[in-house]
Structure formats: structure tokens, C-alpha cells
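Lab notebook, design round three. We kept the backbone fixed and only want residue identities now. Task for the bench partner: fill in a sequence for the structure below.
Input C-alpha cells:
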């Protein structure tokens, strides 16, 4: 039992460390991530948690020179949902769309590769939190450039990940990335329409119940 735990722990560490290789060698890295099973869902979940942690820590610990937080309007659950909800829509939308057009990636592979592609965000943003309390406002341009670079790097890695796991060419990958973004908007519209109908239905039955009680 102990040996099994050690082997499992060793594989988890290797799969988590492999995210660094994906950052510097995205094409080879994301191909081996799924096809050679170099990645793991446990490591993907860890990267996602680190991303959420970076988002949370930015609020109280980033210097007010670069981030001013109105705590009265902050809902931590909605703040975390701003990452988790788009991630869920992206994975479902990309899987549903690419499945219709000979995409090779499964839903769990899309999720895992997307989380691995997020690696630059916590790796850059967490040190930036400390940096924001050291640099002056005049030196803040450096802080802003690095922050934007972490998002751009992650976006490019996501594009490379989708290209490798679906075995698409670059042009087709870009096309289906745009298509996935459109599918996400469609899903949001359907969800809003669904919840609107549910709320209207509940309001109708509540008013009907009040009317019956009033007449009784």
C-alpha cells in the first residue's frame, strides 16, 4: 500500500512539473500530455486551484496603486465563478463543436489541457503581487506589461493545446476557437432564457397560490 502511494505521489509530482515543459515546448508538450499520458487530472486541478488562489490573493495583497478594491461589491463566490463558469463553458462548447468535425480530444482531455495552459497565470501573477508592493507608480508600467503577458501566454498555450489534442492545423484551430467562443455565447443565452422562464413560472404559481388563498 505504501509503495502504491509513493508511486502515485511520484507520478503526480512528475505530471505537475510537466506543466513547465508545456509552457516552453507547447506543441510537443501538449501532444505528449494526452497521447503519451504525461499529464493528470490531479495536476490539472492543482493548477486550476493555484489560478483561483492567485485571483483571490490579488484582492487584499496587491498595492492600491495598481488595484483598488471596493469590498462592498465583492462577492467571493461570483469572483471565483468568473473563472470556473467560462472554463466549464469553454470545455463543453469546444468538445461539442469539435466532436462534430473530427476533433480527437475528449472532454476530460480538453479540461486537462486547458488547465495546464493556465500555468503562466499563477506563476507570474503570484510574484507580481509582491512586486506591486515594491515598485513605484512610475515603474508600474513594468507590472502592467507582465500582467498582460501572463494572460497572453496562457491564451497562446490554450490555442496550442487545442491544436495538438484535436490534431488540427493552425487555421482550423483558430476557426474552431472562434466557433467555441460563439458557442459559449449561445449557451449563456440559453441558460439566461431557461432561468428567466423558470423564474417567471415560479412567480406565476406563487401569484396563483396567493390568489387561491385570498379567495378561500
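Proposed sequence:
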Amino acid at each position: 500500500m505504501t509503495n502504491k502511494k509513493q508511486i502515485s505521489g511520484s507520478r503526480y509530482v512528475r505530471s505537475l512539473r510537466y506543466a513547465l515543459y508545456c509552457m516552453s515546448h507547447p506543441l510537443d508538450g501538449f501532444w505528449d500530455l494526452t497521447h503519451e499520458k504525461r499529464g493528470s487530472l490531479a495536476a490539472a486541478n492543482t493548477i486550476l486551484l493555484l489560478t483561483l488562489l492567485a485571483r483571490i490573493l490579488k484582492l487584499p495583497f496587491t498595492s492600491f496603486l495598481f488595484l483598488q478594491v471596493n469590498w462592498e461589491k465583492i462577492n467571493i463566490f461570483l469572483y471565483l465563478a468568473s473563472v470556473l463558469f467560462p472554463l466549464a463553458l469553454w470545455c463543453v462548447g469546444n468538445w461539442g463543436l469539435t466532436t462534430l468535425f473530427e476533433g480527437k480530444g475528449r472532454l476530460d482531455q480538453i479540461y486537462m489541457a486547458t488547465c495546464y495552459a493556465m500555468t503562466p497565470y499563477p506563476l507570474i501573477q503570484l510574484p507580481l503581487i509582491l512586486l506591486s508592493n515594491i515598485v513605484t507608480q512610475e515603474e508600474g508600467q513594468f507590472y502592467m506589461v507582465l500582467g498582460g503577458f501572463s494572460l497572453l501566454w496562457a491564451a497562446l498555450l490554450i490555442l496550442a493545446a487545442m491544436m495538438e489534442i484535436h490534431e488540427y492545423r493552425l487555421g482550423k484551430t483558430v476557426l474552431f476557437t472562434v466557433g467555441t467562443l460563439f458557442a459559449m455565447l449561445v449557451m449563456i443565452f440559453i441558460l439566461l432564457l431557461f432561468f428567466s422562464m423558470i423564474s417567471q413560472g415560479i412567480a406565476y404559481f406563487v401569484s396563483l397560490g396567493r390568489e387561491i388563498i385570498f379567495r378561500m
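Keep this in mind before ordering anything: Residues 170-215 form the longest helix (46 residues).
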